[in-house]
Amino acid sequence: MRKKSIRKFIAMAIVILIGLFLAVVPFEIPFTYYKYNSFVGAIKLGIDLKGGIVAVYEATEPENSDADFDTSLTATIKRLSDLLTSEGYTEATVVEQQGNKIRIEVPDVDDPSAIFELIGTPAKLEIKKEESDTAEAIITGEHIEDIQASYQDGEYGVVIQFTDEGTTLFSDLTTEIAGSSLYIYIGGELYSQPTVSEAITNGVTFITGDNMSTLAGAEEFATKLLSGTFSVDLTLLDNSVISATLGENALQNGIIAGIIGFIIIAIFLILVYGMFGVMADLSLLVYVVILLFFLQAVPLVQLTLPGIAGIILSLGMAVDGNVIIFERIKDEYKLGKKIPASVASGFKKSFSAILDSNVTTIIAGVVLYVLGTSSIKGFAITLLLGIVVSMFTTLLVTKKFVKWYLPINSTNPKPLKLTREGNVNENE
Q: Are 159 and 113 in contact (CB under 8 A)?
């Protein structure tokens, strides 16, 4: 049993080293053109770590609009997000702020002016049946559900999907002008005048044209249309550019602080708990590898400075769980139990305390995520991930390591920093 346990530890040490290597070391994949970026390198960074732009807009209800303002605001936030995503800014965040404001953050932007040009002056989309600046708009952006570049029947073009109300309006319009052109205005200027070949009644239309002969042209046309579909009027209140250098320094300092803190914790656990501390340190290394994997794999994660704070807090919870277990084992041993019985009882009696403390933290994290702003959400999501992983490593991984250790030493208390109390004799 002793040799078997030693082999298990050797195998686990190799697995942990491989995990740490994959977590932090990028490398070229042999015989291919691909580069492995590591878990750390694949984590999406927020604007405070990567730099970028921040823009805040005030949303107001358009004149003569009968739509519910909250619904229109939600639709506008979605369309802004879709617009930025369609332009390749997949890490952009668009959130509601203080009731009638919209905050847009776009990290890692090389040319901030391109973003401000795209969203800085949103233009209103109007579809008319007459070529006139003053003609009444039959359909506006609030009547459009979605716009996407597409390829159909050997042609590039744009698919426009209408809302229920928009479907009725577009059906009536195309029925009336079948065989003629309709006129698409953006920001009061004529942008396109596609020909309506027949009445369209299903709420979806496919528009083609000379300026959409390529996928890039179709995507540009879709983006332009999408930028005019906001259901509320937007006024730019504030915009700023955040330096990437500041973020890089903050991230570097955070990583250094985390490494130093981990080393100090590891040394403390060994000094206080002996071989139990070694088991805890191995468990914490497993925690680090798993957490880094989830940070780059979970789509909701965009690491920010508050997010780093959430990771550090969850690491503290993981350490706290191990301390609770080992202190309980110490207490059981002081009462006269043998080492295996003390371990079994220690894990059993500490389970409820660890579970309760983590569940209450999870509840707090969920509340922060639901009600918090974007930076608070970043803290909440990393905290929640960290807590779940810490519970797994504390209650399962640490327990497994200690179980593997007992065949190596289940009688000598000195390596485990265990002591009796007074003249207590072994009773189990």
A: no
pLDDT > 80? residue 109: no
Q: Cβ atoms within 10 A of the Cβ of 179, count?
A: 9
Average pLDDT of span 235-241: 80
Whether 195 and 248 share a structural domain:
no
Regarding whether 87 and 189 lie in a shared domain, the answer is: yes
Distance (Å, whole) CA 391 – CA 342: 21
Amino acid letter, residue 376: I
If asked whether residues 65 and 171 sit together in one domain, one would say yes
More confident call, 245 vs 294: 294
Residue 61 is classified by DSSP as P
Range of the domain at 385: 2-37+243-416
- Whether 428 maps to a domain, the answer reads no
Tell me how far apart the alpha carbons of residues 227 and 204 are, in angstroms, rounded to a whole number.
19
Burial class (CB in 10 A: 0-12, 13-18, 19+), 352: exposed
174 and 123 in a common domain: yes
Last residue of a domain, one of 197, 220, 241: 241
Question: Which SS3 state, helix, strand or coil, does residue 195 take?
Answer: strand
Asked if residue 306 lies in contact with residue 379, where contact means CB atoms within 8 angstroms, the answer is yes
Tell me which H or E stretch contains 52: strand 52-60
Residue type, 145: E
Identity (one letter) of the amino acid at 343?
V
> How far is residue 11 CA from its own chain's centroid?
33
* Axis crossing angle, helix 112-119 with helix 69-86, rounded to the nearest 10: 140
Q: Report the pLDDT value the prediction gives residue 7, as an integer from 0 to 100.
A: 92
Q: What is the pTM of this model?
A: 0.70
Instruction: Provide the pLDDT confidence category of residue 299 given band limits of 50, 70 and 90.
Output: confident
d(CA 323, CA 242): 41
Question: Are residue 254 and residue 236 in the same domain, yes or no?
Answer: no
- Inside any domain, residue 44: no
Any idea how long the chain is? 428
Q: What is the mean pLDDT of the chain?
A: 84
